[in-house]
Each structure stands twice: as structure tokens, then as C-alpha cells.
Amino acid sequence: MKLINEIKEIFQYMDMIRNLVKRDLRGRYKGSLLGVLWNFVNPLCQILVYIMVFSVIFPSNLENYYVYLVSGMIPWFFFSESLAQGAGCIVYQADMTKKIYFPREVLPITTVSSRFINMLLSFIVVFLVVLLSGVGIGASVIWLPLVMIVEYIMTLGLTLMASAVTVYFRDIEHIIGVILMAWIWITPIMYSADTVPEQFRGVLYLNPMTSIIEAYHAILYYKTAPVLNDLLLSGGIAVCLLIVGMLVFIRLERRFAEEL
Prior knowledge:
Shape: globular
Low-confidence stretches: none
Order of helices and strands: HHHHHHHHHHHHH
Distance between the termini: 27 Å
Strand content: under 5%
Number of strands: 0
Helix content: over 70%
Structural class: mainly alpha
Largest sheet: none
């Protein structure tokens, strides 16, 4: 089966993926004064803006609201940056794609993996905020790696699709940017799903990111285990998206060289 053979070939290029991830991480802040600290400064500045809006201008009823916000925002940044930047990863590396043979999936995998490492580093800030707030870290933190893996799989599946389609329709990259601006507001990051009117709550849970963000909130804010059924459903959706993403990518990559 083509899909199985493609996966096997990707594993044969793991060294290439590792090297590309290292290059991306080193090159991103090369020449900047703060360097790797931008991994913390950038999301913190964005989070501070949201905290100001929802603590001062539109106050939230949630206690220790900043903990709730940070524990959802950092995972969202990983998802949105991976999708936004991954959409153009084939197009922006057209020369490499046309001149060197390697499984083209390597490029979106590199983009998502690089952003995933950034999220792991940013979680240092999350843990500091949780500890300093007095909320503390509960035993439920053992669920965190599983939730991260589910989010990684889902993000990779969507990024594979987006990167392949963008080769043929360059507007997709810009459309994704617009979609992400709306997507964040239908994901319970800055508010609790309980505050959404019941008639709209069903629509909220059609969003695959809802259950994932709620799992982060459960672990880091409420210090409880995520709802197992929701997590299993999210895992199933993530695997389905990855398979569909791989199949779409395999189908469309045949004419990459012509389109680039």
C-alpha cells in the first residue's frame, strides 16, 4: 500500500528531519539580541494583551484567570503557527523540493515538529505561572504528554493537507490566516464552554480543538484528569486527519515539480 511505503520512507529520513528542525530552531532568532528568549517573550506579550482585555475591560468570572488563559493559549499558538507557516512550507522551499530527492512530507513534518519544540519550551512559562499563582500542579499532569501527542497528530494532519493544496492554490495560505483569526474565538481559550448558550454549545464541540484545549485546562487549571471519552474522540479524529492528510499529500505531490 502506497501509504505504508510512504511512512516507511519518511522514517528512513529521520536524520534529515532532525537536522532541518535544528536548522529552523537555530536560524529563527539568529542575529537577534534575545535569541531563544523570544520563545517566551513573544507569547507572553500576546497573552498579557488578552489578560488586560479580559481582566480589565471585559472582566472574566474565572478565578486566577491568567492561569486559565496561559494554559490554553500556549497550545493554541503551537497549532495556529504550525498551520499558518506550514501551509507555505513546500512553496517557500521550492528549489530544495525540485533539486533534491526526499519524501516531501519531510517539510511539513519539520515545520510542525519545530513549533512543537517551541511549545515544549514555552511550557516552562506555563508551569511557572501555575506554580506562582498558587494553583499548583496536580497528579493529573501525567496526562499532559498524551494530550500534546494528540494535538501534534491533529496539527500535522491539517498541515500536510494545507501545504499540499497551497502548491496549487497559493491563496490558501492567506485564507488559513483569516480562518485562524476566527477559529480562536470558537475555541474556549479565553472563556469557559459553560458560559456559551446551550443552543450554540453543540457547534462549539464540532471544533476539534475544543476538546484538546479543555483537556489542557482540566490538567493545568482544574487539576483534574481530562474527560476520557472526549480525549479518545479527539485522538480518533487526530488519527483520521493524519491519514487523510497523508493521502491528500500523496495524491497531490505528483505534480509538485510542475506547479513550483
